[in-house]
Amino acid sequence: MTSPKDRRNRDRRKGNATVAVERRRGAERRTTDRRRSVRAPMDLWMEEFQGEDMYFRRVGNLSLGGVYFEQTIPHKLGTRLTLKFSIPGHERIIETAGQVVSAPGHKEGLGMGVRFLSLAPEDRKLLETYIAEMGSTSHGADVDEAEG
Questions:
Q1: What are phi and psi of 63, to 5 degrees?
Q2: In angstroms, what CA-CA distances link 48 with 15, 145, 147?
Q3: Is the Cβ–Cβ distance between 53 and 44 less than 8 Å?
């Protein structure tokens, strides 16, 4: 009987030929920035809803693609949630679906990156204007614009 490791190294499509299996390790992880959106540093609170639970999260930075929450215990990657917030100086409440796309490792501290999944066009325009006014920063989470 073969072990699970041996099965991963066998190409089942072409008999028993051994194939190279590459695994990424900590030091070999991606070092380039995947973000396509300019981020604005912020100091505001957002409401986060997951099921029946509600949390208040402190925003570190915000972009058209998503948000990074500082000093928060993260949810598991892939977790879907609902976010509600308003831009300083505006009364409009923005509500959007989001998905957790990044979280630091245990030794790296607390925080969580959430990608926006469904920003309404008028909310997107408001956010775009605000971010342009605030400028950009190079700090934050791996948050990218949702596809589609």
A1: -140, 175
A2: 51, 19, 22
A3: no
For residue 26, give Cα distances in angstroms to 29, 105, 111: 6, 10, 19
- Return the structure tokens found at 133: 């006014």
Q: Is 123 helix (H, G, I), strand (E, B) or coil?
A: helix
Whole-number Å distance between alpha carbons of 49 and 106: 24
User: 0.70 exceeded by the pTM?
Assistant: no
Q: Which three-class secondary structure state does DSSP give residue 124?
A: helix
pLDDT one-digit tens code per residue, 87-142: 888 899 999 999 999 988 767 778 999 999 999 999 999 999 888 887 644 334 44
Tokens of 98: 């989001």
